[in-house]
Amino acid sequence: MKKRDWIHLTIIILLLAFSYFRYKNQTYIFNRVRFLLNTQIEINAVSYNKNSEKLIENAFTMIEEYELKFSYYNPESELYKINNSEKEEFQIDDEFYEILKLAEKVYYESNHLYDVTIGSSLDLWDFENETIPDSLAISEALSHIGFEKLEIKEGYLYKPQGIKINLGSISKGYIIDKVIEYLIESSVKEAFVNAGGDIRFYSNEKRKWRVGVQNPRDPFSRIATLRIPDMAVVTSGDYERFFISDEQRYHHIITPLTGLPTNISVSVTILSPSALIADALSTAAMVMHPFEAIELIKTYPDTEAIIYFFDEDEELVSLRTEGISRWVL
Question: What is the pLDDT of residue 157?
């Protein structure tokens, strides 16, 4: 074979190799948004498989199934049936047990300030109609709150009559983790799940994601910007569902010891490898004193936080874990 023919053959081989490389590394982006869990859910996935759209549909089906398990308001959900049953003893599966055990752990770590048995108190508040509950009704509801009144074992839950379990502060994070785990097992290249601002990211190339933290008193501006790797980021704040009456802000994060909205911190952002942990801690930190909340968050591996609150001069200030400086721009 002549030298010129060898050159031509080499070029052809290189072109074929390049085409094969591009084919093997071609990616497809899938993005879908649906309203579930009483919020807007966005799922985004980058895959090497052009037929991966089915993965997104499967993920939304998973969320629907979890909603039928953990929803506080859906009469068809398992949790609703437990809360409104005349029985006091129930069989629960491993997923219920896992969530309740973490809720129990944070309950005691927060000195009873984080409490998923707060349902009877939350029922009194109507934020759409801006209704403040009667003090007698609040007092009655408080008598039906207290995680220590529950008994939890694997496969078993004892719940006295009158107590209502609300998993809204923890189940969303659990569901996000499960969806991300499913997408990873399905070999996606990158993915994120955003459930009303509770987000978890994944990338097999160690990509870092940019996330803005909303100013709690200005919905059109950011108070911080984070650039984070494969982590969950969850923010709780007194600006999400609230109304103002007589210059007093009433919001949806209720302190179980008083039955009234907490008035210490105004925004808490948690970064953690687990959306489940970030979800629970973001609510716990909102009802705790900021300095105590930071000490609690430090006990969780690879978990960081920014807490915003007003000081004595009514200036908005922040308290942060040391490690979060790596992720703040």
Answer: 98
* pLDDT for the residue 256: 95
Do 181 and 64 share a domain, yes or no?
yes
Counted domains in the chain: 3
Residues 285 and 300 in one domain: yes
For residue 323, the enclosing domain spans 208-329
Establish if 82 belongs to a structural domain: yes
Q: List all residues 6 or more positions away from 64 whose beta carbon is below 8 Å from its beta carbon.
A: 36
In a domain, 14, yes or no: no
Do residues 156 and 113 share a domain? yes
Query: What is the pTM for the complete model shown?
Result: 0.90
| Cα–Cα distance measured from residue 88 to residue 142, given in angstroms and rounded to the nearest whole number | 19
Residue 25: what pLDDT? 54
**CATH for 100:** 1.10.3980.10
Regions of the chain short of the pLDDT cut 70: 1-25
